[in-house]
Amino acid sequence: LEFRRVLFRSLLKLMESEIKKLPSKNSTDLYLGGIGQGAQVVLAAFLKYRRYNMRLGGVVALLSYNALEDG
């Protein structure tokens, strides 16, 4: 469980870093994508990011399920 928290914190920091690199500096211009386990990670990050009332452009998650079902 702690590993998952560290992973998400790291991913959220990476997303923030990438948003700063965008010409618009707008989070709605960032899209995430993944297949299988990668899709689980990006889908969970997308849902966590929304909890902070921040919007992303979208997500493409193939062959996956919601890894945050337990909260």
SSE order: HEHE
Q: Kindly provide the radius of gyration, computed on alpha-carbon positions and rounded to a whole number of angstroms.
A: 12 Å
Percent range for helical residues?
40-55%
Tally of contiguous helical segments: 2
As laid out across the biggest beta sheet, the strand order is: 1-2
Uncertain parts:
none
Average predicted local confidence, pLDDT: 83
Please indicate the percent range of residues in DSSP E strands (runs of 2 or more): 5-15%
- Largest sheet geometry: 2 strands, parallel
Globally, the shape reads globular
Structural class: alpha+beta
DSSP strand tally: 2
Distance between the termini: 11 Å
Descriptive labels:
71 residues, alpha+beta, two-stranded parallel ribbon, 2 helices, 49% helix, 14% strand
